[in-house]
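Need residues for this backbone.
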């Protein structure tokens, strides 16, 4: 089994406005830049990773050293990102003085501990209410064990976005308005943010902290069902997939009446059971199953289909592209064929209409599903939230793949991509552009290598894939073959440019 990455300690601040409405409090949230590779375009609370310097001096009135360091980390991050100084003694500074402190920190003239000492400031644990510790689920390329703290914004301080490039914008918003924006599919958030908005929407009651801590995920148990968007549950299941991925995302697309399951990929009993529990819950709420859809033929996407069919008493209909059905013949039964342009309607409230897009390249019968109303796109293994997409001939075809990417790029109003692996992507166009750019750049370098005299895929890999570990070179050779096929088809190289054609059949 491949190694899941170990979560890193981090802290986040749920900043409440100074004299906020007790019934529907105002919080400050930020949108991450769409340029960021990790959770680009997501709405979030300010925060970041723990640094060694955060342990000294930690925070006053806190016996637990780890918590003290994380509180200090929270204070530092909020100052770095918003210019808000959440330290005692800060109330004696003028806005101008606070700004010059900020410049001291940003320019590196003074470290955070030195700055606290120099200006006689101290971070006090009493100002930071602990409201849970969330661990990023293991499907993510980067994982954090994040401590959330609820903090009142001090009087006379206003957030100013300071971290250049990292945050796109920020605003005060009432918890219920923010939650309503998620419900209207206008924003993409991770689970702890959604939970915080829901909890705060219940008002600043005496049992507020208990309500925050009422779910097991606040005690470090990673969320299994992840609702980046309403109606689209992402349920990552452990699969024998290609590193760095360890999980494949199964999507449970649902309205008030209907449920559609996409890619139940795990062959493992425990994972199938966990998925089954979630499916049963959705069905018990009064939904009926519309079907089970496959994006493509790879084992890490279809490994749980027959087990699920059995659990459902054999009644479910499996839908896939004709080429997928042919390839899986005898292994997995496909009941209904889907082709480009087919529409899957899920009746109910709100109704979901999915448009089928045939998008070959990674696999011949690959399908994507587009919901025009909210701009959501299920991308399967065409675009993923971690790792890279393997184009392995003859099933894979680079020419088709780039055409498919261009076609997805041309869809209007995309707001989120739901890939077969890793977190959702809230920066769809930036992401697709990056994919296209990456492939064309590789192609150019491969062409240069061939023109420079490289005569076999292994020669080319050695020249071009210098950023890839030798362990991955066999895979890289498959990708090189795919690029060479495309270059030949485009008439940019000729077959006899390459001596060693046998490598084509590695
Ligand atoms: Zn695949």
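Answer:
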């Amino acid at each position: 089994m491949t190694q899941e990455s170990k979560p890193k300690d981090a802290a986040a601040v749920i900043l409440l406005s100074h004299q906020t409405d007790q019934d529907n409090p105002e919080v400050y949230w930020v949108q991450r830049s769409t340029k960021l590779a990790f959770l680009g375009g997501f709405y979030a609370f300010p925060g970041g990773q723990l640094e060694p310097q955060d342990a000294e001096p930690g925070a006053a009135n806190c016996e637990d050293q780890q918590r003290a360091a994380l509180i200090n980390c929270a204070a530092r991050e909020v100052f770095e990102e918003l210019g808000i100084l959440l330290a005692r003694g800060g109330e004696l500074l003028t806005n101008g003085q606070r700004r010059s402190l900020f410049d001291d920190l940003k320019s590196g003239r003074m470290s955070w501990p030195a700055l606290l000492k120099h200006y006689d400031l101290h971070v006090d644990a009493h100002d930071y209410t602990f409201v849970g510790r969330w661990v990023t689920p293991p499907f993510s390329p980067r994982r954090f064990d994040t401590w959330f703290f609820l903090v009142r914004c001090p009087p006379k301080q206003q957030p100013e976005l300071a971290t250049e490039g990292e945050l796109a914008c920020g605003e005060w918003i009432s918890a219920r308005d923010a939650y309503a924006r998620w419900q209207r599919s206008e924003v993409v958030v991770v689970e702890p943010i959604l939970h915080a908005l829901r909890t705060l929407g219940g008002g600043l009651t005496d049992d507020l902290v208990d309500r925050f801590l009422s779910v097991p995920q606040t005690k470090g148990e990673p969320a299994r069902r992840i609702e980046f968007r309403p109606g689209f549950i992402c349920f990552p299941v452990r699969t024998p997939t290609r590193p760095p991925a360890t999980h494949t995302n199964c999507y449970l697309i649902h309205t008030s009446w209907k449920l559609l399951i996409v890619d139940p990929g795990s062959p493992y009993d425990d994972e199938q059971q966990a998925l089954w529990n979630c499916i049963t819950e959705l069905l018990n709420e009064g939904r009926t199953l519309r079907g089970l859809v496959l994006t493509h033929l790879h084992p890490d996407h279809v490994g749980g289909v027959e087990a699920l069919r059995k659990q459902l008493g054999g009644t479910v209909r499996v839908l896939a592209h004709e080429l997928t059905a042919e390839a899986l013949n005898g292994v997995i039964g496909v009941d209904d064929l889907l082709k480009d342009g087919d529409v899957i309607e899920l009746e109910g409230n709100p109704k979901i209409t999915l448009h089928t897009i045939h998008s070959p390249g990674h696999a011949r019968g690959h399908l994507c599903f587009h919901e025009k109303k909210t701009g959501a796109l299920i991308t399967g293994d065409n675009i993923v939230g971690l790792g890279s997409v393997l184009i392995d001939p003859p099933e894979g075809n680079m020419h088709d793949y780039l055409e498919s990417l261009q076609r997805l790029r041309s869809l209007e109003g995309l707001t989120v991509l739901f890939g077969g692996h890793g977190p959702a992507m809230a920066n769809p166009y930036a992401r697709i552009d990056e994919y296209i750019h990456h492939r064309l750049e590789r192609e150019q370098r491969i062409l240069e290598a061939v023109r420079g005299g490289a005569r076999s895929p292994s020669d080319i890999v050695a020249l071009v894939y210098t950023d890839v570990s030798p362990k991955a070179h066999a895979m890289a050779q498959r990708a090189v073959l795919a690029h060479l096929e495309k270059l030949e088809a485009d008439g940019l190289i000729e077959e006899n440019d390459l001596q060693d054609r046998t490598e084509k059949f590695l």
